[in-house]
Design brief:
By secondary structure, the chain is of the alpha/beta class. The chain contains 15 helices and 8 strands. GO terms for molecular function: hydrolase activity.
Amino acid sequence: MLVDVGEVQIATRVVGSGPPLLLLHGYPQTRRVWRRVADALAERFTVVTTDLRGYGDSSKPEGDDAHTTYSKRAMAGDQVEVMRSLGFERFAVAGHDRGARVVHRMCLDHPDRVVQAALLDILPTSEVYATTDRQLATMYFHWFFLIRPHALAEQLIDANPDAWMDNVLGLAGGAGASMSADDIEHYKSHFRDPAVVHATCEDYRAGASVDLEHDALDAGRRIPCPVLVLWGDRGPLTRREHPLNVWRRFARDVTGRALPGGHFFIDDSPDDVGRAIAEFLEPWRCGELD
């Protein structure tokens, strides 16, 4: 279903019953990435999966010169409004990749809404840019390609979106055989739409501009709720400062561990991801955090 949150409509799926849990995908995926995890968690939670604005079946507004349309603040606001529209004033949330960056901003902008948060395979955006070295720039070249002024990146990706997706889905440990042919075709089909390509470029442009401005204004503020950090044991976070050490500078209460897989470890190890999230959220399920 589509949930109207004012400026955009957000594609949304709801399964299960119990305390509310919002799951957010990253680049270049959609809510589909969570389907196996969501169905397992639905035994304990009301699980909401959405497409971020600009992705999948959600609205894809044109970007603006300041890139605020795709700021993590705007994207977090969308998701809070989705949950409010569904009747959930407070909820737990987990996000992977770009979705985790939305979660980080959501925890700072809406601390009264987020009870617990899980961040999958990211470090804070400001930390990534501050510590970029040759290895990261080579592995994550798309961070620097996608932020080129409109519309160079769009024109090049639109010329051969399938080749672009083959490359991006193989980054940072890839998903190997874990991502089915149907999954890959699903993601490719969306990137054949120039509106998706533009929107997702704007997501990254926001990350290199207005999102950093928001982060600078919040320097020193830490996420107040309990945070779970998960990362792939073959992914990029294993090559840098220990993720928990980094996140403890940005959040008050941090736990976490590596799980089997690369950057796309939700595809590699959905059962492990589901168990880790369920264990972390047990206090929320039991009503200890009402």
